[in-house]
Design goal:
Blueprint: H1 20-33, E1 39-46, H2 49-56, H3 58-76, E2 83-88, E3 91-97, H4 100-118, E4 127-133, H5 141-155, E5 163-165, H6 168-189, E6 193-202, E7 208-219, E8 223-225, H7 227-237, H8 240-260, E9 268-271, H9 282-292, E10 300-305, H10 306-311, H11 313-325, E11 330-335, H12 341-347, E12 352-355, H13 370-384, E13 389-392, H14 397-405, E14 410-412, E15 420-421, H15 422-431, H16 451-457, H17 463-468, E16 472-477, E17 483-488, H18 490-495, H19 500-503, H20 518-526, E18 535-543, E19 546-559, E20 564-572, H21 574-581
Length: 585
Protein backbone atom coordinates (compact mmCIF):
# COMPACT_ATOMS: atom_id res chain seq x y z
CA UNK A 1 0.00 0.00 0.00
CA UNK A 2 1.14 3.58 -0.44
CA UNK A 3 2.77 5.49 2.37
CA UNK A 4 0.63 7.25 4.96
CA UNK A 5 -0.08 10.86 4.10
CA UNK A 6 1.57 13.17 6.61
CA UNK A 7 3.03 16.28 4.95
CA UNK A 8 0.49 18.97 4.02
CA UNK A 9 2.70 20.38 1.27
CA UNK A 10 2.26 17.12 -0.64
CA UNK A 11 -1.52 17.14 -0.27
CA UNK A 12 -4.22 18.60 -2.45
CA UNK A 13 -5.91 21.34 -0.43
CA UNK A 14 -9.47 20.14 -1.10
CA UNK A 15 -9.32 16.35 -1.29
CA UNK A 16 -6.36 15.71 1.05
CA UNK A 17 -4.77 13.16 -1.28
CA UNK A 18 -1.43 13.54 -3.04
CA UNK A 19 -0.80 16.32 -5.55
CA UNK A 20 0.22 15.59 -9.13
CA UNK A 21 3.80 16.77 -8.45
CA UNK A 22 4.20 14.34 -5.56
CA UNK A 23 2.65 11.55 -7.65
CA UNK A 24 5.12 12.12 -10.49
CA UNK A 25 8.10 12.15 -8.13
CA UNK A 26 7.21 9.05 -6.11
CA UNK A 27 5.71 6.93 -8.90
CA UNK A 28 9.11 7.12 -10.61
CA UNK A 29 10.83 5.85 -7.47
CA UNK A 30 8.23 3.09 -7.07
CA UNK A 31 8.73 1.87 -10.63
CA UNK A 32 12.55 1.91 -10.39
CA UNK A 33 12.59 0.05 -7.09
CA UNK A 34 10.35 -2.72 -8.47
CA UNK A 35 11.78 -3.54 -11.91
CA UNK A 36 10.10 -6.98 -12.06
CA UNK A 37 6.61 -5.60 -11.49
CA UNK A 38 4.33 -4.57 -14.35
CA UNK A 39 2.62 -1.29 -13.59
CA UNK A 40 -0.13 0.85 -15.10
CA UNK A 41 -1.12 4.47 -14.72
CA UNK A 42 -4.81 5.37 -14.95
CA UNK A 43 -6.28 8.84 -15.32
CA UNK A 44 -10.02 9.29 -14.91
CA UNK A 45 -12.43 12.16 -15.08
CA UNK A 46 -15.87 12.96 -13.75
CA UNK A 47 -18.23 14.02 -16.53
CA UNK A 48 -20.93 16.62 -15.86
CA UNK A 49 -19.35 17.96 -12.67
CA UNK A 50 -19.94 21.50 -13.95
CA UNK A 51 -23.64 20.67 -14.22
CA UNK A 52 -23.66 19.68 -10.56
CA UNK A 53 -21.97 22.96 -9.67
CA UNK A 54 -24.60 24.86 -11.67
CA UNK A 55 -27.55 22.99 -10.18
CA UNK A 56 -26.45 22.56 -6.58
CA UNK A 57 -23.60 25.02 -6.08
CA UNK A 58 -19.83 24.65 -5.76
CA UNK A 59 -20.21 23.07 -2.34
CA UNK A 60 -21.93 20.01 -3.78
CA UNK A 61 -19.30 19.71 -6.50
CA UNK A 62 -16.56 19.83 -3.85
CA UNK A 63 -18.36 17.11 -1.91
CA UNK A 64 -18.26 14.88 -4.99
CA UNK A 65 -14.51 15.42 -5.37
CA UNK A 66 -13.91 14.68 -1.69
CA UNK A 67 -15.96 11.49 -1.99
CA UNK A 68 -13.88 10.33 -4.96
CA UNK A 69 -10.70 10.92 -2.98
CA UNK A 70 -12.12 8.97 -0.04
CA UNK A 71 -13.06 6.07 -2.34
CA UNK A 72 -9.54 6.02 -3.83
CA UNK A 73 -7.99 5.87 -0.37
CA UNK A 74 -10.29 3.04 0.71
CA UNK A 75 -9.58 0.96 -2.42
CA UNK A 76 -5.82 1.47 -2.71
CA UNK A 77 -4.95 1.32 0.99
CA UNK A 78 -5.32 -2.42 0.46
CA UNK A 79 -3.18 -2.53 -2.70
CA UNK A 80 0.57 -2.86 -2.38
CA UNK A 81 2.76 -0.60 -4.53
CA UNK A 82 -0.01 1.86 -5.36
CA UNK A 83 -0.28 5.65 -5.46
CA UNK A 84 -3.21 8.04 -5.96
CA UNK A 85 -3.50 11.75 -6.65
CA UNK A 86 -5.74 14.54 -7.82
CA UNK A 87 -4.37 15.75 -11.17
CA UNK A 88 -6.50 18.87 -11.49
CA UNK A 89 -10.11 20.00 -11.17
CA UNK A 90 -12.22 16.86 -11.80
CA UNK A 91 -9.34 14.61 -12.96
CA UNK A 92 -7.67 11.98 -10.76
CA UNK A 93 -4.97 9.37 -11.29
CA UNK A 94 -3.65 6.22 -9.72
CA UNK A 95 -0.69 3.91 -10.32
CA UNK A 96 -0.70 0.25 -9.35
CA UNK A 97 0.57 -3.18 -10.44
CA UNK A 98 -1.08 -4.13 -13.74
CA UNK A 99 -3.45 -7.05 -13.77
CA UNK A 100 -6.41 -6.58 -16.09
CA UNK A 101 -8.87 -8.42 -13.88
CA UNK A 102 -7.80 -6.54 -10.74
CA UNK A 103 -7.83 -3.24 -12.64
CA UNK A 104 -11.42 -3.83 -13.72
CA UNK A 105 -12.28 -4.50 -10.07
CA UNK A 106 -10.75 -1.17 -9.00
CA UNK A 107 -12.55 0.74 -11.75
CA UNK A 108 -15.86 -0.94 -10.94
CA UNK A 109 -15.35 -0.10 -7.27
CA UNK A 110 -14.87 3.58 -8.08
CA UNK A 111 -17.94 3.64 -10.32
CA UNK A 112 -20.16 1.76 -7.87
CA UNK A 113 -19.37 4.21 -5.10
CA UNK A 114 -20.10 7.14 -7.41
CA UNK A 115 -23.43 5.59 -8.41
CA UNK A 116 -24.36 5.58 -4.74
CA UNK A 117 -23.66 9.32 -4.67
CA UNK A 118 -25.56 9.81 -7.94
CA UNK A 119 -28.70 8.36 -6.42
CA UNK A 120 -29.00 11.49 -4.27
CA UNK A 121 -28.61 13.78 -7.29
CA UNK A 122 -30.60 14.21 -10.50
CA UNK A 123 -27.38 14.09 -12.56
CA UNK A 124 -25.61 10.82 -13.34
CA UNK A 125 -21.93 10.94 -12.40
CA UNK A 126 -20.45 9.28 -15.47
CA UNK A 127 -16.77 8.42 -15.47
CA UNK A 128 -14.16 8.10 -18.23
CA UNK A 129 -10.92 6.15 -17.64
CA UNK A 130 -7.67 6.16 -19.62
CA UNK A 131 -5.14 3.36 -19.03
CA UNK A 132 -1.45 3.34 -19.90
CA UNK A 133 0.16 -0.05 -19.32
CA UNK A 134 3.82 0.76 -18.61
CA UNK A 135 5.91 -1.02 -21.22
CA UNK A 136 8.91 1.33 -21.17
CA UNK A 137 10.01 2.39 -17.68
CA UNK A 138 12.62 4.67 -19.17
CA UNK A 139 9.87 7.14 -20.03
CA UNK A 140 9.29 9.96 -17.59
CA UNK A 141 6.24 9.65 -15.36
CA UNK A 142 4.91 12.84 -16.92
CA UNK A 143 5.04 11.20 -20.37
CA UNK A 144 3.27 8.15 -18.98
CA UNK A 145 0.53 10.38 -17.53
CA UNK A 146 0.17 12.11 -20.87
CA UNK A 147 -0.36 8.75 -22.54
CA UNK A 148 -2.98 7.80 -19.97
CA UNK A 149 -4.66 11.14 -20.70
CA UNK A 150 -4.67 10.40 -24.44
CA UNK A 151 -6.43 7.12 -23.70
CA UNK A 152 -8.90 9.04 -21.51
CA UNK A 153 -9.65 11.49 -24.32
CA UNK A 154 -10.35 8.60 -26.70
CA UNK A 155 -13.43 7.57 -24.68
CA UNK A 156 -14.52 10.89 -23.20
CA UNK A 157 -18.19 11.46 -23.93
CA UNK A 158 -18.65 7.83 -25.02
CA UNK A 159 -21.59 6.42 -23.06
CA UNK A 160 -20.97 2.86 -24.21
CA UNK A 161 -17.21 2.52 -23.79
CA UNK A 162 -15.88 4.31 -20.71
CA UNK A 163 -12.40 2.73 -20.44
CA UNK A 164 -9.72 3.34 -23.07
CA UNK A 165 -6.26 1.79 -23.37
CA UNK A 166 -3.34 3.72 -24.83
CA UNK A 167 -2.06 2.71 -28.26
CA UNK A 168 0.85 4.10 -30.26
CA UNK A 169 -1.58 5.40 -32.88
CA UNK A 170 -2.94 7.74 -30.20
CA UNK A 171 0.54 9.17 -29.68
CA UNK A 172 1.07 9.59 -33.43
CA UNK A 173 -2.26 11.37 -33.66
CA UNK A 174 -1.38 13.63 -30.72
CA UNK A 175 1.94 14.60 -32.32
CA UNK A 176 0.18 15.34 -35.59
CA UNK A 177 -2.49 17.41 -33.82
CA UNK A 178 0.21 19.39 -32.02
CA UNK A 179 1.86 20.19 -35.35
CA UNK A 180 -1.47 21.22 -36.90
CA UNK A 181 -2.35 23.44 -33.95
CA UNK A 182 1.04 25.15 -34.09
CA UNK A 183 0.61 25.99 -37.79
CA UNK A 184 -3.10 26.81 -38.09
CA UNK A 185 -2.98 30.58 -37.45
CA UNK A 186 -0.04 31.14 -39.79
CA UNK A 187 -1.76 29.00 -42.43
CA UNK A 188 -4.81 31.25 -42.34
CA UNK A 189 -2.68 34.39 -42.66
CA UNK A 190 -0.67 32.86 -45.54
CA UNK A 191 -3.79 31.80 -47.49
CA UNK A 192 -2.98 28.11 -47.29
CA UNK A 193 -6.69 27.36 -46.86
CA UNK A 194 -8.34 27.20 -50.28
CA UNK A 195 -12.04 27.19 -51.11
CA UNK A 196 -13.24 24.34 -53.30
CA UNK A 197 -16.74 24.00 -54.72
CA UNK A 198 -18.69 20.78 -55.28
CA UNK A 199 -21.63 21.23 -57.68
CA UNK A 200 -25.16 20.06 -56.96
CA UNK A 201 -27.00 18.64 -59.96
CA UNK A 202 -30.60 18.24 -61.00
CA UNK A 203 -31.44 14.62 -61.78
CA UNK A 204 -34.07 15.77 -64.27
CA UNK A 205 -31.65 17.40 -66.71
CA UNK A 206 -28.22 17.16 -64.99
CA UNK A 207 -27.85 20.94 -64.86
CA UNK A 208 -26.00 22.63 -61.99
CA UNK A 209 -28.53 23.94 -59.47
CA UNK A 210 -26.19 24.78 -56.59
CA UNK A 211 -22.84 24.07 -54.97
CA UNK A 212 -21.27 23.56 -51.56
CA UNK A 213 -18.21 25.52 -50.46
CA UNK A 214 -15.58 23.24 -48.90
CA UNK A 215 -12.19 24.08 -47.44
CA UNK A 216 -8.91 22.44 -48.37
CA UNK A 217 -5.58 23.00 -46.59
CA UNK A 218 -2.60 22.97 -48.98
CA UNK A 219 0.73 23.34 -47.16
CA UNK A 220 4.09 24.17 -48.77
CA UNK A 221 5.77 21.28 -46.91
CA UNK A 222 3.33 18.37 -47.04
CA UNK A 223 0.83 19.33 -49.70
CA UNK A 224 -2.84 18.61 -49.00
CA UNK A 225 -3.87 17.97 -45.38
CA UNK A 226 -7.00 15.82 -45.17
CA UNK A 227 -10.05 17.64 -43.75
CA UNK A 228 -10.65 14.59 -41.56
CA UNK A 229 -7.45 15.46 -39.71
CA UNK A 230 -7.93 19.18 -39.10
CA UNK A 231 -11.70 19.87 -39.06
CA UNK A 232 -12.49 17.78 -35.90
CA UNK A 233 -9.43 19.29 -34.16
CA UNK A 234 -10.49 22.84 -35.08
CA UNK A 235 -13.99 22.12 -33.80
CA UNK A 236 -12.47 21.00 -30.52
CA UNK A 237 -10.06 23.91 -30.03
CA UNK A 238 -12.41 26.61 -31.38
CA UNK A 239 -10.30 27.63 -34.39
CA UNK A 240 -13.17 26.47 -36.62
CA UNK A 241 -14.89 29.79 -35.91
CA UNK A 242 -12.06 31.70 -37.63
CA UNK A 243 -11.92 29.22 -40.48
CA UNK A 244 -15.69 29.31 -41.03
CA UNK A 245 -15.66 33.10 -41.13
CA UNK A 246 -12.90 32.95 -43.76
CA UNK A 247 -14.90 30.49 -45.90
CA UNK A 248 -18.06 32.61 -45.63
CA UNK A 249 -16.28 35.75 -46.81
CA UNK A 250 -14.38 34.04 -49.62
CA UNK A 251 -17.64 32.51 -50.87
CA UNK A 252 -19.41 35.88 -50.91
CA UNK A 253 -16.44 37.42 -52.72
CA UNK A 254 -16.52 34.63 -55.30
CA UNK A 255 -20.24 35.07 -55.95
CA UNK A 256 -19.96 38.85 -56.34
CA UNK A 257 -16.87 38.79 -58.58
CA UNK A 258 -18.40 36.33 -61.01
CA UNK A 259 -21.80 38.00 -61.05
CA UNK A 260 -20.07 41.22 -62.08
CA UNK A 261 -18.46 39.26 -64.94
CA UNK A 262 -21.90 38.15 -66.09
CA UNK A 263 -21.41 34.52 -65.02
CA UNK A 264 -24.59 32.81 -63.83
CA UNK A 265 -23.49 31.52 -60.42
CA UNK A 266 -25.83 29.11 -58.60
CA UNK A 267 -26.64 29.48 -54.89
CA UNK A 268 -23.71 28.26 -52.79
CA UNK A 269 -24.01 26.56 -49.41
CA UNK A 270 -21.58 27.15 -46.56
CA UNK A 271 -21.25 25.13 -43.37
CA UNK A 272 -22.02 26.63 -39.97
CA UNK A 273 -20.30 24.61 -37.24
CA UNK A 274 -22.02 23.90 -33.97
CA UNK A 275 -19.46 25.99 -32.09
CA UNK A 276 -20.49 28.99 -34.23
CA UNK A 277 -23.87 28.93 -32.49
CA UNK A 278 -22.18 30.30 -29.37
CA UNK A 279 -21.02 33.38 -31.24
CA UNK A 280 -23.47 36.18 -30.29
CA UNK A 281 -22.57 38.01 -33.54
CA UNK A 282 -23.25 35.02 -35.84
CA UNK A 283 -26.33 36.46 -37.56
CA UNK A 284 -24.84 39.96 -37.86
CA UNK A 285 -21.65 38.50 -39.36
CA UNK A 286 -23.34 36.45 -42.09
CA UNK A 287 -26.00 39.00 -42.94
CA UNK A 288 -23.30 41.68 -42.93
CA UNK A 289 -21.30 39.75 -45.54
CA UNK A 290 -24.25 39.55 -47.94
CA UNK A 291 -24.65 43.33 -47.58
CA UNK A 292 -20.93 44.04 -47.87
CA UNK A 293 -20.79 42.20 -51.21
CA UNK A 294 -24.31 43.27 -52.27
CA UNK A 295 -25.55 39.75 -53.07
CA UNK A 296 -29.03 38.31 -52.65
CA UNK A 297 -29.14 36.61 -49.20
CA UNK A 298 -30.60 33.50 -50.86
CA UNK A 299 -27.39 33.09 -52.85
CA UNK A 300 -25.58 32.18 -49.61
CA UNK A 301 -27.30 29.10 -48.19
CA UNK A 302 -26.42 27.94 -44.68
CA UNK A 303 -25.95 24.32 -43.64
CA UNK A 304 -26.35 23.24 -40.03
CA UNK A 305 -25.75 19.62 -39.03
CA UNK A 306 -28.64 17.64 -37.61
CA UNK A 307 -26.77 17.32 -34.30
CA UNK A 308 -26.89 21.11 -33.92
CA UNK A 309 -30.69 20.92 -33.99
CA UNK A 310 -30.96 17.98 -31.62
CA UNK A 311 -28.52 19.34 -29.04
CA UNK A 312 -29.46 23.02 -29.15
CA UNK A 313 -33.05 23.08 -30.45
CA UNK A 314 -34.31 26.21 -28.71
CA UNK A 315 -31.13 28.13 -29.45
CA UNK A 316 -31.34 27.01 -33.08
CA UNK A 317 -34.96 28.13 -33.43
CA UNK A 318 -34.08 31.65 -32.30
CA UNK A 319 -31.13 31.87 -34.68
CA UNK A 320 -33.13 30.48 -37.59
CA UNK A 321 -35.89 33.03 -37.07
CA UNK A 322 -33.34 35.84 -37.31
CA UNK A 323 -31.79 34.43 -40.49
CA UNK A 324 -35.22 34.01 -42.06
CA UNK A 325 -36.10 37.60 -41.22
CA UNK A 326 -33.13 38.64 -43.36
CA UNK A 327 -34.11 36.38 -46.26
CA UNK A 328 -31.47 33.69 -45.72
CA UNK A 329 -32.23 29.98 -46.15
CA UNK A 330 -31.05 27.10 -43.99
CA UNK A 331 -30.53 23.43 -44.87
CA UNK A 332 -30.29 20.58 -42.40
CA UNK A 333 -27.08 18.70 -43.20
CA UNK A 334 -26.55 14.98 -42.51
CA UNK A 335 -30.29 14.40 -42.15
CA UNK A 336 -30.86 10.89 -40.82
CA UNK A 337 -27.48 10.57 -39.10
CA UNK A 338 -29.00 11.20 -35.67
CA UNK A 339 -31.62 9.35 -33.68
CA UNK A 340 -34.37 11.99 -33.75
CA UNK A 341 -34.40 13.23 -37.33
CA UNK A 342 -38.16 13.29 -37.77
CA UNK A 343 -38.76 14.67 -34.30
CA UNK A 344 -36.40 17.53 -35.14
CA UNK A 345 -38.04 18.09 -38.52
CA UNK A 346 -41.47 18.48 -36.96
CA UNK A 347 -40.18 21.32 -34.76
CA UNK A 348 -37.70 23.15 -36.96
CA UNK A 349 -38.71 25.11 -40.11
CA UNK A 350 -35.76 24.18 -42.31
CA UNK A 351 -35.62 25.21 -45.98
CA UNK A 352 -33.85 22.12 -47.28
CA UNK A 353 -32.65 18.63 -46.35
CA UNK A 354 -29.34 16.98 -47.20
CA UNK A 355 -29.95 13.29 -46.78
CA UNK A 356 -27.18 11.22 -45.27
CA UNK A 357 -25.83 8.64 -47.71
CA UNK A 358 -25.99 5.95 -45.02
CA UNK A 359 -29.47 5.23 -46.42
CA UNK A 360 -27.80 4.09 -49.64
CA UNK A 361 -24.89 2.15 -48.16
CA UNK A 362 -24.78 -1.54 -48.99
CA UNK A 363 -24.52 -2.40 -45.32
CA UNK A 364 -28.00 -1.00 -44.80
CA UNK A 365 -29.62 -2.81 -47.72
CA UNK A 366 -31.11 -5.82 -45.96
CA UNK A 367 -33.22 -8.49 -47.62
CA UNK A 368 -36.46 -6.70 -46.82
CA UNK A 369 -35.35 -3.52 -48.55
CA UNK A 370 -36.00 -1.57 -45.36
CA UNK A 371 -33.25 0.97 -46.05
CA UNK A 372 -34.71 1.69 -49.49
CA UNK A 373 -38.18 2.11 -48.04
CA UNK A 374 -36.93 4.54 -45.43
CA UNK A 375 -35.04 6.54 -48.04
CA UNK A 376 -38.13 6.61 -50.27
CA UNK A 377 -40.31 7.74 -47.37
CA UNK A 378 -37.95 10.57 -46.42
CA UNK A 379 -37.79 11.82 -50.02
CA UNK A 380 -41.58 11.73 -50.35
CA UNK A 381 -42.04 13.40 -46.98
CA UNK A 382 -39.65 16.18 -47.99
CA UNK A 383 -41.72 16.76 -51.12
CA UNK A 384 -44.98 16.84 -49.20
CA UNK A 385 -43.54 19.32 -46.74
CA UNK A 386 -42.38 21.50 -49.60
CA UNK A 387 -38.76 21.09 -48.51
CA UNK A 388 -36.16 20.57 -51.28
CA UNK A 389 -34.10 17.45 -50.61
CA UNK A 390 -30.65 16.59 -51.89
CA UNK A 391 -28.80 13.30 -51.53
CA UNK A 392 -25.04 13.71 -51.21
CA UNK A 393 -22.21 11.26 -51.76
CA UNK A 394 -23.67 9.79 -54.96
CA UNK A 395 -20.89 7.89 -56.75
CA UNK A 396 -22.38 5.32 -59.12
CA UNK A 397 -24.91 5.13 -61.96
CA UNK A 398 -26.78 2.48 -59.95
CA UNK A 399 -27.30 4.98 -57.14
CA UNK A 400 -28.41 7.63 -59.63
CA UNK A 401 -30.97 5.29 -61.22
CA UNK A 402 -32.27 4.24 -57.81
CA UNK A 403 -32.69 7.85 -56.69
CA UNK A 404 -34.50 8.74 -59.92
CA UNK A 405 -36.92 5.87 -59.29
CA UNK A 406 -37.65 7.34 -55.85
CA UNK A 407 -38.41 10.78 -57.25
CA UNK A 408 -35.25 12.43 -55.94
CA UNK A 409 -34.47 15.57 -57.95
CA UNK A 410 -31.11 16.82 -56.62
CA UNK A 411 -27.81 15.07 -55.92
CA UNK A 412 -24.23 15.87 -55.01
CA UNK A 413 -21.32 13.51 -55.39
CA UNK A 414 -18.31 12.18 -57.27
CA UNK A 415 -20.47 10.61 -59.99
CA UNK A 416 -21.07 14.09 -61.41
CA UNK A 417 -18.22 16.17 -60.03
CA UNK A 418 -15.61 16.20 -57.31
CA UNK A 419 -14.85 19.34 -55.27
CA UNK A 420 -12.86 21.71 -57.48
CA UNK A 421 -10.96 25.01 -57.04
CA UNK A 422 -12.50 28.33 -58.06
CA UNK A 423 -11.09 28.51 -61.60
CA UNK A 424 -12.22 24.97 -62.49
CA UNK A 425 -15.65 25.56 -60.98
CA UNK A 426 -16.15 28.69 -63.10
CA UNK A 427 -15.25 26.71 -66.25
CA UNK A 428 -17.58 23.91 -65.14
CA UNK A 429 -20.65 26.12 -64.66
CA UNK A 430 -19.95 27.83 -67.98
CA UNK A 431 -20.14 24.50 -69.79
CA UNK A 432 -23.09 23.27 -67.72
CA UNK A 433 -26.15 25.49 -68.10
CA UNK A 434 -27.14 26.51 -64.60
CA UNK A 435 -30.60 27.05 -63.30
CA UNK A 436 -30.70 29.48 -60.40
CA UNK A 437 -33.90 29.14 -58.41
CA UNK A 438 -34.17 31.36 -55.38
CA UNK A 439 -37.81 30.54 -54.64
CA UNK A 440 -38.79 27.19 -53.16
CA UNK A 441 -40.65 25.03 -55.64
CA UNK A 442 -43.89 23.38 -54.61
CA UNK A 443 -44.86 20.41 -56.78
CA UNK A 444 -48.34 19.93 -55.33
CA UNK A 445 -49.98 23.37 -55.53
CA UNK A 446 -52.80 22.16 -57.77
CA UNK A 447 -53.63 18.67 -56.62
CA UNK A 448 -56.87 16.76 -56.68
CA UNK A 449 -57.55 15.33 -53.24
CA UNK A 450 -60.21 12.68 -52.82
CA UNK A 451 -59.86 11.57 -49.18
CA UNK A 452 -61.17 8.08 -49.98
CA UNK A 453 -58.54 7.53 -52.71
CA UNK A 454 -55.66 9.77 -51.57
CA UNK A 455 -54.03 7.16 -49.36
CA UNK A 456 -54.08 4.38 -51.94
CA UNK A 457 -52.86 6.59 -54.80
CA UNK A 458 -50.39 8.92 -53.07
CA UNK A 459 -50.23 8.67 -49.31
CA UNK A 460 -49.30 5.00 -48.98
CA UNK A 461 -45.69 5.93 -49.69
CA UNK A 462 -45.81 7.70 -46.31
CA UNK A 463 -46.37 4.45 -44.41
CA UNK A 464 -42.65 3.90 -43.62
CA UNK A 465 -42.67 7.34 -41.97
CA UNK A 466 -45.54 6.26 -39.75
CA UNK A 467 -43.53 3.19 -38.78
CA UNK A 468 -40.37 5.11 -37.89
CA UNK A 469 -41.57 7.06 -34.87
CA UNK A 470 -44.43 6.95 -32.41
CA UNK A 471 -47.76 8.75 -32.56
CA UNK A 472 -48.03 10.08 -36.13
CA UNK A 473 -51.29 10.86 -37.90
CA UNK A 474 -52.46 12.16 -41.29
CA UNK A 475 -55.45 14.50 -41.08
CA UNK A 476 -57.92 15.49 -43.80
CA UNK A 477 -59.25 18.98 -43.02
CA UNK A 478 -62.41 19.39 -45.05
CA UNK A 479 -64.94 22.18 -45.28
CA UNK A 480 -66.39 23.40 -41.98
CA UNK A 481 -65.33 21.75 -38.73
CA UNK A 482 -64.87 18.23 -40.04
CA UNK A 483 -61.48 16.68 -39.43
CA UNK A 484 -61.05 13.18 -40.77
CA UNK A 485 -58.25 10.70 -40.19
CA UNK A 486 -56.59 9.25 -43.29
CA UNK A 487 -54.02 7.13 -41.51
CA UNK A 488 -52.31 6.87 -38.13
CA UNK A 489 -49.51 4.95 -36.46
CA UNK A 490 -50.28 2.05 -34.16
CA UNK A 491 -49.00 4.07 -31.19
CA UNK A 492 -51.45 6.85 -31.98
CA UNK A 493 -54.33 4.38 -32.22
CA UNK A 494 -53.39 3.13 -28.76
CA UNK A 495 -53.58 6.64 -27.30
CA UNK A 496 -57.00 7.43 -28.74
CA UNK A 497 -58.79 4.18 -28.18
CA UNK A 498 -57.91 1.74 -30.94
CA UNK A 499 -58.54 1.43 -34.65
CA UNK A 500 -62.22 0.55 -34.16
CA UNK A 501 -63.00 4.16 -33.32
CA UNK A 502 -61.96 5.26 -36.81
CA UNK A 503 -63.82 2.54 -38.64
CA UNK A 504 -67.08 3.29 -36.83
CA UNK A 505 -68.43 5.64 -39.51
CA UNK A 506 -69.19 8.45 -39.50
CA UNK A 507 -66.27 9.61 -37.34
CA UNK A 508 -64.33 12.87 -37.37
CA UNK A 509 -61.42 13.55 -35.05
CA UNK A 510 -62.92 16.79 -33.73
CA UNK A 511 -65.62 14.82 -31.90
CA UNK A 512 -63.11 13.73 -29.25
CA UNK A 513 -61.66 17.22 -28.64
CA UNK A 514 -62.78 18.90 -25.41
CA UNK A 515 -65.37 21.63 -26.13
CA UNK A 516 -63.32 24.30 -24.35
CA UNK A 517 -60.29 23.47 -26.51
CA UNK A 518 -62.04 23.16 -29.89
CA UNK A 519 -61.50 26.79 -30.92
CA UNK A 520 -57.77 26.63 -30.18
CA UNK A 521 -57.53 23.21 -31.83
CA UNK A 522 -59.02 24.34 -35.15
CA UNK A 523 -57.10 27.61 -35.14
CA UNK A 524 -53.92 25.50 -35.18
CA UNK A 525 -54.95 24.12 -38.58
CA UNK A 526 -56.50 27.27 -40.01
CA UNK A 527 -53.46 29.44 -39.29
CA UNK A 528 -51.20 27.29 -41.47
CA UNK A 529 -51.39 28.54 -45.04
CA UNK A 530 -47.95 27.57 -46.34
CA UNK A 531 -45.77 24.51 -46.44
CA UNK A 532 -43.08 25.73 -44.03
CA UNK A 533 -45.13 26.76 -41.00
CA UNK A 534 -45.50 24.56 -37.94
CA UNK A 535 -48.74 24.52 -35.93
CA UNK A 536 -48.60 23.72 -32.23
CA UNK A 537 -51.24 23.26 -29.57
CA UNK A 538 -51.94 21.29 -26.38
CA UNK A 539 -55.57 20.13 -26.21
CA UNK A 540 -57.64 17.74 -24.14
CA UNK A 541 -59.09 14.63 -25.77
CA UNK A 542 -62.13 12.99 -24.14
CA UNK A 543 -62.16 9.25 -24.66
CA UNK A 544 -64.79 7.11 -22.95
CA UNK A 545 -64.84 9.32 -19.88
CA UNK A 546 -61.05 9.63 -19.72
CA UNK A 547 -59.23 12.93 -20.37
CA UNK A 548 -55.92 12.86 -22.25
CA UNK A 549 -53.75 15.93 -22.70
CA UNK A 550 -52.25 15.76 -26.19
CA UNK A 551 -49.43 17.93 -27.58
CA UNK A 552 -49.95 18.44 -31.34
CA UNK A 553 -47.35 19.60 -33.85
CA UNK A 554 -48.61 19.75 -37.44
CA UNK A 555 -47.38 20.62 -40.94
CA UNK A 556 -49.29 21.00 -44.22
CA UNK A 557 -48.69 18.33 -46.88
CA UNK A 558 -51.16 19.07 -49.66
CA UNK A 559 -54.10 21.39 -50.30
CA UNK A 560 -56.79 22.44 -52.74
CA UNK A 561 -60.02 24.42 -52.39
CA UNK A 562 -61.91 21.66 -50.58
CA UNK A 563 -59.33 19.70 -48.65
CA UNK A 564 -56.03 20.03 -46.85
CA UNK A 565 -53.88 17.11 -45.73
CA UNK A 566 -51.76 17.56 -42.59
CA UNK A 567 -48.99 15.48 -41.08
CA UNK A 568 -49.10 15.57 -37.27
CA UNK A 569 -47.02 14.26 -34.39
CA UNK A 570 -48.97 13.75 -31.18
CA UNK A 571 -47.39 13.31 -27.75
CA UNK A 572 -49.35 12.22 -24.68
CA UNK A 573 -48.35 14.82 -22.04
CA UNK A 574 -51.04 13.94 -19.50
CA UNK A 575 -48.59 13.05 -16.74
CA UNK A 576 -46.53 16.21 -17.26
CA UNK A 577 -49.62 18.45 -17.20
CA UNK A 578 -51.00 16.64 -14.16
CA UNK A 579 -47.71 17.19 -12.34
CA UNK A 580 -47.73 20.91 -13.08
CA UNK A 581 -51.44 21.38 -12.25
CA UNK A 582 -51.43 18.95 -9.30
CA UNK A 583 -54.10 16.81 -10.96
CA UNK A 584 -54.79 13.17 -10.18
CA UNK A 585 -54.66 10.76 -13.12
Amino acid sequence: MFAAVTEDKHLDALTRIYTKDYFIEHAGSMFRENPETDFCIVEFEVNRLSMINDMYGLGEGDRVLKTIAKVLLEIFNEVELSLVCRVQSDTFAFACPYDKENLETYINGIEDNLKQLSSNLSVDLLMSFGVYVVCDKRLSILSMCERANLALRSVKGNYIQHVGYFTESMRDKAVEETEITAKMNAALINNEFKIYFQPKHSLDDERVVGAEALVRWITPEKGVVSPDKFIPLFEENGFIMKLDAYVWEETCRFIKENQEKGIEVPPISVNVSQVDLYNPHLVDTLVGLTRKYAIDPKMLKLEFTESAYTESTQQMLGIMDKFHEHGMEIDMDDFGSGYSALNVLKDVPVDGLKIDLKFLSKTNEDNSGKAKRILAAVIHMAKWLGIPAIVEGVETIEQVDHLKSLGCTMVQGFYYARPMPESEFVKYIKTKSTRVKLETERPFDEVVINPDEWWENVGSDCEPILEMNTCHILFDRGVGDELGVIRASDSLYEIIGGRERFFNKPFTFDTIVNNDDRKRFFEMFDEINDYHSIGKSICRLELDGQVIWADFKIRLLEKNEDHRVFFAVVDDVTRSVASVLNLSI
